[in-house]
Amino acid sequence: MVIEQLDPVRHRIAKGARHGMRTDVVFYASGPILEQVQKDRALEQAMNVACLPGIVGPSLAMPDIHQGYGFPIGGVAAMDWDSGVVSPGGVGYDINCGVRLIRTNLEKDEVRARLKEIVDQVFRDVPCGVGGKGHLDITEKQLNQVLEQGAEWMADQGYGEPSDIEHCEERGRLKGADPGEVSARAKERGRPQIGTLGSGNHFLEIQFVQKVHDEEAARCYGLEEGQVVVLIHSGSRGLGHQVCTDFLAQMGAAMKKYGITLPDRQLACVPIQSPEGQAYLKAMRAAANFAWANRQAMLHFVRGSFQKVFGKKTRLALVYDVCHNIAKRERYEFGGRTVDVLVHRKGATRAFPPHHPEIPADYRAVGQPVLIPGSMGTASWVLAGNEGAMRESFGSVCHGAGRLLSRHAAKHGRDARAVQRELEERGILVRSETRDGIIEEVPEAYKDVDEVIEVVHEAGLARKVARLRPMGVIKG
Amino acid sequence: MAEYELLEHTADTGFRVRAASLEELFARAAEALVSIAVDTARAEARERRSVECAGEPVEELLVNWLSEVLWLLEGERFVPARFERLSVAGGVARGAVRGEPRDDQRHPPRIVVKAVTYHQLAVRAHNGGWEAEVFLDI
């Protein structure tokens, strides 16, 4: 594999590198990250994505890229809306896995003084749902409404405020969802799990704004140094997982019908305009809406926790909610023409620049907030979208720190209690429903999130707004 | 007790199982999946369910089989303790599962398995028997 360095942060694998590639792979990395990304099969997967029919522009990979299934995690691929394909693997099993950032009117020291109390309260109020059940009981009819209406449905039931909806990507609801395309199994798996966090890398963190890098944007997002915020990282739970499973199974046969052959079964795809492609998109949008409703319910629970501990005057407002596993139809100026594309973001975040009409009016002057969760116990970031992302990455940037060690390797020689104690010594309280939840997510298992952010900042895809430090961590 | 070997993957997890026959291979793979998700030490064979699925080639059939088992665990909330009377032939796998309703106290959850993937999926002949490698999204 020949990697050509284009500038300090941009690299290319030319399309001739392997038979079947229709376009180049372009990825973003700096020195240490460049070494790390070559340690697993992530770049090979980005080359496989470059083989997909109808791809527009390069197969892109962000600096948090690591090996996934089919698509690399941290990958972006835009497919021509008329002649391209849609790939459930390019969205992932956790459809609309995403992040929401909530600001409070509390200072770091006030929360630090009662940290144990608030962490335990949140741990009680926000179910992890590892065993499969949450606090909410919804009927099948209500579930169908959730699948159509997303976060809005939850707010209408009293689980939220109108400004919460304003501050979600797509206002927390993808249009064109059809609950009829979601299988009975997916619904049954998801229904008891609404309002639950999940396990793996999902978490809820109580954090504070450690440093503001862009005063204007931070002010616009209502953030200042020392302020306490809450970050929730979760997705569409069993419902989304089952939707992806169902469609991947069907697409094996459908690909034969459309004469598509691929280097990896996991990349299974069909033409966007085929009945199978349209059915998947309708189901995917429904699952995405479930995820927004899910994160909305958790925001409501956290509001309750903070008010129980810090009093009724405590205010929690949603800064923004982004999805980082999704496929969306968008338009770009690319290669001297307007392209109408389905952008697959598999572990990548939309990053629209200032003045983009899709951004909430109160943020339009500075650009879309981009939320990048880091690893447990390190840091997370708030960025703002830049023009650079529109020019070269189909309005996308990275989504996290990116894993470095396998879960198995992360566990090796580590003890959950010792990890917990070590974090406590650094002022970070951790509560987890499972022992493995802590140990598999140790900070050492991830790349340095600051380095990842530096690359996208340097590349001009997004700019640094604020660095957040955790104080309390809830994990499944 | 499930017998399997864990395989490395940056973000998720995989396992390798070996068996003398395809039927035993499918049972071993199902046991591996279940024990990655929950602690099955106290799972008792009190109730019986049946599982059946189709798919070709055999790799596709194994993914579909394991997806059925995952459905039992996550959808029907049933913890399999034992797989029996399996048959794997002609693109169809079927068998009986004995186990009990899921109870987090008795079967402490380990991690949520989101799905069974096709990533580096392999089913092959090995030393006169069979070997399979499967990766799970978690």
Note down, in words, how this protein is organized:
The complex is a heterodimer of chains A (476) and B (138). Chain A is an alpha+beta fold and 476 residues long. Chain A has a single domain (4-475), classed as tRNA-splicing ligase RtcB (Alpha-Beta Complex), CATH 3.90.1860.10. Chain A is 33% helix and 26% strand. Chain A contains 16 helices and 19 strands. Chain A has helices at residues 31-37, 42-49, 108-113, 115-125, 140-149, 151-156, 162-166, 184-190, 215-220, 237-257, 275-310, 387-392, 407-411, 416-425, 435-439, 449-458, and strands spanning 4-5, 10-13, 25-28, 55-66, 73-80, 85-86, 98-107, 203-212, 227-234, 270-271, 316-323, 325-334, 337-346, 349-350, 369-372, 380-385, 396-397, 429-432, 462-475. In chain A, strands 7, 8, 9, 11, 15, 16, 18 and 19 form an eight-stranded mixed beta sheet that branches. In chain A, strands 1-2-3-4-5-13-12 form a seven-stranded mixed beta sheet, sandwiched between helices. In chain A, strand 12 (325-334) and strand 13 form a beta hairpin. The longest helix of chain A has 36 residues, at 275-310. Chain A is globular and about 60 Å long. Chain A starts with a strand and ends with a strand. Chain B is α+β, with helices and mostly antiparallel strands. Chain B has one domain (13-137): Archease domain (Archease, Possible Chaperone, Chain: A, domain 1), CATH 3.55.10.10. Chain B has two helices and eight strands, in the order E-E-H-E-H-E-E-E-E-E. In chain B, the strands form two sheets. In chain B, strands 1, 2, 6, 7 and 8 form a five-stranded antiparallel beta sheet that branches. Chain B has a three-stranded antiparallel beta sheet with strand order 3-5-4, covered by helices on one side. In chain B, strand 7 (122-126) and strand 8 (129-137) form a beta hairpin. Chain B is globular and about 40 Å long. The model of chain B has no long low-confidence stretch (mean pLDDT 93). At the A-B interface, helix 8, helix 10 and helix 13 of A face helix 2 and strand 6 of B.
